[in-house]
Amino acid sequence: MNEIKINSNDVLIMNLVHYFIKEKNYNPVILHGINDEIWLENLDNDYKIIRIVSHYIHNDEQLNFDRFKLKKILDNLKKKTFTFDMPILSIYTSLGENVNLPEKKDNIYSIVVSNNSEIKNKGLIEVFPDIVEKTTHKEEGLDLIVKISDDINKESFEKSKKIEKIFSIKKPVITYLLIGICILMFIITYLFQREDIFILGGNIKDLTRNGEYYRLLTCIFLHGGIIHITCNMYSLYIIGTQLESFFGKIRYLIIFLLSGICGSVLSLAFSNSNSISIGASGAIFGLLGAILYFGYHYRVYLGNVLKNQIIPIILLNLGIGFIVSGIDNFAHIGGLIGGIFTTMACGIPGKEIKKDRINGLILLTIYLSFIIYLAFVK
């Protein structure tokens, strides 16, 4: 039988890819027209991009062209992922002896790792302290290649299953329940004395500030007319069904209710004494804030949806609120900000980082304290 020869450079590259995918949760980036390079992304890491370059660079002119090409690709990735700061680590595995490689320039970090023993590179160990331990295997040659390939395929399969679970459509029970409550209350207001119902549950400044705090919640489920409830329930159905699938029932309900209350409180701070604020739009804007935060964390999978759809929808609706009279835009703004902070505190499925959740809880507490001060103290 013919002996299979294993290229040591291929083993090195596979070892590095295996480490970054399995141990550091990086994902491959598909770039058309790029040869002899492997790009990996993890937008939650200090290095957003890991780039492993296997083609031979024999002089500074080639290196300068490589860096020029790299910057062009990075600019496109920044626009696509809505990322302003994208530190990248370029790992060169085949570099000429006379090439002057700057360690850092324009937020691009560069190191040379030409064989497995050089994985002990000081620059790598500083950022990835466990890289030596995790890239040391008892297998060698073909056995190592097979093991690494199996591990990478298994890890990629598990990640695909998690993403599929998050983005799969589930039955939106809570959204239907919320819509049902709003419609029921709308029917009740027209079967009985409409003004009395609004007075009983609407967000009225003097009554709410005098201890009837339940109005901050009950006003969310009241609507003033057929156009009002139709627009809000259609928006809740479109946004809520998707968001409930992403976050699950409990987190989704928490985001909706807290966003609605935040909207009610900020509305109270800037409303007139005799005005009645009602409607679910503050809570719905909170759901838009939640989609914005979710979309930012999953922007690699959502492509340009964040920039081309989510943000324009938010800005358009806020703009309409400032132009059209009778719309409580303070409730919208309060709900939007409350939705973002509540989502931070609740955590993103599949990307739950304890530090982010603690920061979200702190920001939500500060925000609520501030708007409560504006509404009830100032």
Structural features:
378 residues, 6-stranded mixed beta sheet, elongated, Rhomboid-like fold, 16 helices, alpha/beta, 2 domains
Structure overview:
The protein starts with 7 loop residues before the first helix and ends with a helix. Helix 10 runs parallel beside helix 12, helix 12 crosses helix 15 (329-346) and helix 15 packs antiparallel against helix 16 (354-377). It has 16 helices and eight strands. The model has no long low-confidence stretch (mean pLDDT 86). The chain has two domains: 8-166; 170-377, Rhomboid-like fold. It has helices at 8-22, 60-81, 122-127, 131-134, 141-167, 173-191, 194-201, 205-209, 215-218, 226-247, 249-270, 281-297, 299-302, 305-323, 329-346, 354-377, and strands spanning 27-28, 37-41, 49-53, 88-92, 104-105, 108-112, 203-204, 276-277. A six-stranded mixed sheet has the order 1-2-3-4-6-5, covered by helices on one side. A two-stranded antiparallel ribbon has the order 7-8. The radius of gyration is 27 Å and the shape is elongated. The protein has 378 residues and is of the alpha/beta class.
